[in-house]
Fold each of these.
Amino acid sequence: MFTDIVGYTALMGNDEQRAFELLRKNREIHKPVIEEFGGKWIKELGDGVMASFPSVSNAVYAAIKIQEACHEANAYELRIGIHQGEVIFEEGDIFGDAVNIAARIQALAAPSSILVSESVQRDLSNKNDIQSEFFRTENLKNVKEPVKVYRIFLAGIEPKKLKPPKLIKSSIIPEYEFDIHISYRYNDNNYDGWVTEFVEKLHQELGATCKDKLSIFFDKNPEDNRLQFEHEDGSVSSKIKSLIFLPIISQTYCDVNSYVWQNEFKAFKEQIKSEKLGNNIKLQNGNSISRVIPVKIHDIDMEDVKLLENELSGSLRSIDFIFREDGVNRPLLPLDDEKQGNSYRPLYRNQINKLANAVKEIISGIKQFQKENVFEYSSFSPTLTQIRPNVISTSISGAKVQMGEKQKPNIYLAWTSNDLKERREEMAIILQKAGFNVLPSVDCPADDEIFKQRAKEDIQKCLCSLHMLSGEFGRRFESEDNVSFPQFQFMEAKKKIDDPGSEFQTFIWIQPDSQQSMKPSQQEFIRYIRNNITRNMMFSNSAGPMQLVDDIRVVMMKEKVEVHDTKDTEIFFIFNQQDEEDAKIITDRLSLEYPVEIMNIMPDGEDEYREVSSQQIPKSKLAVVYFKYAADWALPFIKQIWKEVGGASSPTPLFFVGEDDPRSNLARNFKAPKVVSTIVPKDEIPAEVKKVYTTIVNLK
């Protein structure tokens, strides 16, 4: 605990005798109280006192009693700061980071107040007779991490409030006052300072994301005492003119009678109607985004979702900071990034980055608007022939470079169940970087009919769809509680596939970590999908989004290839040249009973061999990929060829078989729909192939 007499230095210069009297009085107040609560008087530091205590509560009780005694004496005012941590006692003194932090906290305190660190605050949670409130997060000198600071309430003693700094107009656009306006309910910050910390983290992230130094308006006062902006002419206004509005959507934010809703949220919406920029900003990729970016810290009631959508004309694109767990509905914290547990839980660090990138997009769009050079998005009729890789041709002699840019294909990224929202956002970013235009670009509508209409319209604009499924069934329709939103979108995509001559593709990706917690209704839905696999439909077992997107690009952006001379056969046997000698023995034995086509893949030209395989496999009843020494070739090869022949919808099963010598082959396997994988001795391989072949023929 550090204490300090307010204004002592000035007093020492004016009245030295009076200053010494205050020091004596200060000792008289401090020493008995410190001893009463088991503390240890360490030393005086000029006009301050440093003491240590055996517990947090003892230190705070002592600080409260010292302030009360000082108030009764009416001779001077004190600042007090308290922190707990490890210290080193040496020759009557103490050392350590905890000492430095306590001293820095004391310097932040207003006259007649007590400030404590978060570590102290946590240990006070069970002390009903000690009340506190969040003060602010502070970057303390010589302290690596920011420290959350709290103020202790003192009965009958009102600390002097520090005068807030005058707000300075600082937007990148001259006619605006700030770039970003943070709107929130005071109670969402009062408990643990969540909003204050969020603003600081956002400021830091924007500094690392945007070239411009963006300003943020954030008023720390309660709603009924929010600061008013003072203009140069002396007039004041509660309507801060900002480029971007960030409402912190909590369980209480959507209250139409609240000050925040009426004087901040609604006021901003009314204000931008008369501005040249308007409500939506056109981005360089042709999409548009609202100047209002909701930041959700709670899952909110459906009525509140509809209220928001109504105010935002349905264009709700929120960035969620929600800690999702059964029975829990609280804001995500930076400390949660260090916790192990639910893999669906988003990282605070990633969400801050997503928000900063969204802000950057809007700022870039505003700058483009200012130049009066808005990019127009040219629509096109989606056909596969329009999808081509970038064409690059060079001529060294003429020093010419010509580049033809391909048209981005539209992909429908289906709205997911609530637990996958952050994963869907991550997937959208990866797809965009891979050259796709992602639809829809906003959050899932709350209204059933609007959702159905939007889903149908966007699917019709796309060449393919991606459906990310977890163990959750997802939100159900009010009128059809046996149908979920994810299920409806899949059925609409299936309708498009079933259209005669349709080239539409659908990809289904069940999250790898959702199998153990699959709800019965979701199990039934996935079973339906598996039983109704058709052409142009593929299940993916990809371990991550990057691999999945690469698979989609292979299927969707594949150029027309040469047609090879293939013929119908019973067994198509594929092996690498490294295993030619052993493979010949196996195929000779098989050919005694079945027609066998073989392909010996040489070291060069794998792409061509892969193309021949993808054309021959559908004309075979069974495709076998065999390996002995070529395991490093075999596994990537079968994974790729499985995708190219349709994955789970492949007309021909694949048999991935390897020898058990060398023993390292035992770790090589590939589990996927329409794939059988095994490792056996070489002598048993012909019998294993026959067994798999016979099973397939009998099933057909």
Amino acid sequence: MASTHPPRRGGEPQDGSSHRRRTRPGLVAALVVALVGVTVPVAWVVTRGDEVTITPAAAAKPAAAEEEPEQPQETSLWSSEERVKAPTHADRAPVELGTRFTAAKDGAATGVRFYKAPGEKGQHTGSLWDARGRRLAKVTFPDETASGWQEARFSSPVQLEAGQVYTVSYHSAHGTYVGSQGAGSATSGPLSTTSRNAGVFGYGGSAFPRKSNPKGYNYWVDVIFRWHEHRRPTTPRPTYTRWPTATPTPTWTRWPTEEPTSGPTNWPTRRPTHRPTHWPTSVPTNVPTDLPTDLPTDLPTYEPSPTVTVTRTPTTRPTPTHRPTNWPTWKPTPRPTPTHWPTSEPTPTVEPTRSQTPLPTPTKSPTGTAEPTPTKTPTKSPEPTPEPTKPQEPGGRSCDGFPTPDCTGVPPGTKLTTKALNEGRSYRVTTAGTELNGVHIAGDLLITANNVVVRNSQIDGMVINEFGPNTYSFKIYDSTVGPASGCNTLPGVGESKFTAERVLVRNHGDGFRASGDNIVIRDSFVRLCSNPGDHSDGIQTYKTGKGLVLDHNTIDQRGVKDITAPIFLTDPQIVDAVVTNNLVMGGTYSIQLKNARGTLIVQGNQIVDKSWAYGPVEADCDKISWKNNSIVTIDKDYNVTSVVKALPCAK
């Protein structure tokens, strides 16, 4: 059977015939039907008497399919079917627990979920917060079960912007909750937790949870997120019309001699580029009733785009012990060596009263009893180590001995101008090179520009230079940080790339926060406090980095109940730390320096005798240049009255 597709290149009939015939009039209609019936580029047919002229037409395009409406999608970070295997913690104090998250697409938060711990009592409220700590929505959980996942929907969806950080939380007045240590990030569709410090908390009434734990806790608080997934319009597959079955047998004629020998320029590329010189002398009489089997194989096809299905990626979270700390939501807070601490630290055991019998060389008793105390020596303290050199800021003050409240903070007689808060409870600096001199900020100072200088000023809250994933450089001199009364759980000054000199930090749970490179703290005074559940530190580190200098400061943690250490440096990312000429008192251990690398110098420091709970020092002694450190007594004005003994390094 002869093929019915157009002639091949060269125009030779497929049956090899060279006869030429006139076209019958009835052929025109058959050709029109046949050509139009195929959804590939076709030609208009024009008759000239008995002859036929075929003019190529533009390629036929399928009609544009109407765009399908966007398809709503909804997801959460964790499945409601997921059974949480996490330890239960009973702090017995009101606490707000949350998760920081972001979305890759614009969408809306429609509700909040949390995993209820067995034994947890009372009614719970859920909240949604922006990165500035503003509450965007609040809802009460209805019809709670005894434990497991609880869910509540907001009265109306809250629109969220892609790429921004938000916090979802719930408040427990009973203070019993689940928490998993070392939890990694979680992702589900466009929704994911922040890369670090995702789990946050805050003790007290329902408020923005700012603090995070250095061990990376997950408190299993979830958001319900809805977005629209755009579905690409579908294009129907081309269909073909059957070849006519009742058409008279066509005959072919010679191409008119008056036509040009070259074909039109817009003939499809798979057609010959010139007109054939002969048509077939005959066509089969039994035209097939269905599509020819040898139609061109390169016809375009159009497949509908499949609907996108969001697959939740579960994240394995180890089950650690819990240890919340005191810092904003965006940073975790390192804690002491014990892997699990209760809500409140046990009351430290006071060491036995030391004997006054002098010994020529203090040694440990082989029986483990307390060491005798040598006879008191003159009040002169050991000669301070000359390194590091302390540059004096022009116009600054200096303390005759160790820093005290009288020679740090806002200089006496300074007239302060109040700055109106411009960012929630904060005053935010956004211009690089800004200098604040003689100002009073009745809240936090948020620094989001580089090379900011603060002088002779009072900040009632904290000074923080982290905003989102970025930190900004600043210097602060002769300024007071902290409220005049009460206790602010959060650190006074942080996080990285800052210099603090003659700064008075008062009534803060933590004094300085070191989280990054290039931190210098000199000639400053820190008086600490604590709230229930706090773990107070004079300086604490987390991902500290390089170039920490803590030189000639006074850190007083005496009488504080919930404590860790005045000097708490245990971050494995510490590289090159200098701790010199400081007067410290209090803490479980007064000086802790572990896990650090590089050049580590601890020299000329003095620890007040019997002020610690467990011991004066806990350190990796074999890594440290340890010299001229001692145990001393002081008077009420922080003057050293005696050197009790030299202080060797102890692990």
Amino acid sequence: MTTLDYWVIAVFSVGILVAGLSMSDRKADMKSYFGASGALPWWMSGLSLYMGFFSAGTFVVWGAIAYEQGWAAVAIQWTMAIAGFLIGRFIAPRWRQTGVLTAAAFIQQRFGGGVHKFYTYVFLLMSFAYNGAFLYPVAKLVNVSTGLPSEYAIMLFGLMAVLYTTSGGLWAVIVTNVLQFVVLTAAVLIVVPLAFDKVGGIGRFVEASPEGFFNLTGGEYTLWFMVAFGFYNMVFIGGNWAYVQRYTSVPTKREAKKVGYLFGWLYLVSPVIWMLPPMLYRLVNADLAGLENEGAYLLMCKEVLPAGIMGLMITGMIFATTDSVNASLNVSSAVFTNDVYKRLYPKASNGTLMWVARGSTLAFGVVTVLVALMVPAMGGIVEVVLSIGALTGVPLYGPAVWALFSKRQTSFSILFTTLASLAVNVFFKFLGPAVLDVSLTRMQETVLGVVLPIVLLAVFEVIYRKKPYRVSVTAKTDASVEQEVASHGERQGILAIRTVAYALLGVGAMIFILGILAPYGKASVLGISVLIVLLGGLLRWMSSKRIRPS
């Protein structure tokens, strides 16, 4: 890392913070702060969904797997693309049809107050674990690239993660998500050709890679793991309350479909590009062991990126992850404010609710920092991310997604499914090795976590087959939703596009300067900077015409 890299990190960090803070809205209410007034453009929502799911953990978690197993890391992420297409076709429009602000509100209307309380408190508890798992890779990346102790990095960027979320709500999250998508994509498109040059080209990479490096499966990541993990992702991305917010905040069911489809297309293409640097680093240094392989991506970047561009890559990774944290913090605050505080104090004014919303965002951010500090003691980020997902993903979110399509499920059936599945998964994860002398492999752990809740829900479908359907959630029609989109939300949408446009013009200009200063790779850096400037100009023109891409 050079002095120029540190300046790039500082300037980009300040710029992103300013972009997020620019979406601060003194006239915000619950609908605009947490739901963008239902006026969120589908392409912004789709990019935000992608960046909310995609984080620095992608480089750390999947980068470690790519370094060890090769192409299997790409195949694992392709299951997310399939999940995205299925969500776009079936799940996203169902969520939009409910007309709710949060997934918790759907559970309240569908199953009543008792079930609502249970899932609300469990979600808030689990969000701390997820947020900590998202924030930890930031510290890992900063530590590997700059030498700054992980603890300081967690606290520094954890604080930055909550500042603009507290100020601007969902609109701030969306704006920074879109901006970071462009920054991170630009950085990765620069590093890939330079990494190939480092190892001697594509032919040398293919010839010198370990045996089986290009297999779709490898090690504990078997075909059955892929199938189970893909189904898990469909439920997790389709039912996780933070991601549901992306489907409910667009104007229509048709645009909700586009959100899922865009996510699918991005995950069909991007893993091929993202995973090449750590795979190529295997040829540069094959001696990484243990948790050291979590730094494979950054180590390759340090090998090939010119001064300044390394800072760009670090910034992209850092804020891709903090954006993931911000998205989760925003929906956690929404659940607490709308589904806990507001029910305790139903006469609270909008001003009071907004104070609670911002205060809870800040408080949840502090807890996230504390959890992130504990990740190394839990076995590393790969173990934490995959184990949390296998244990809790489908048991927690599967029942709600199932209930979108079935009216036969009851409060008892979904509670029993969640509790029984969690109990069995936790037993085999933590007590099985000692009590039964049985330790599940990664594949067995994932399959169990996916199959058991689905089987239980299917059993209840059969048990209740002769009972009359429950009354479904009353939803607004698409026509009425489109007519009732607030002008305030439309104005915020135009402001969001304009903010992204100006930010991209600045990003493009800075990358152009870095390209001029770069001792090598000038053509690719300058070419990408021109594309970003053109994109910023296009968005600025769109905002002036008050149109959205369709």
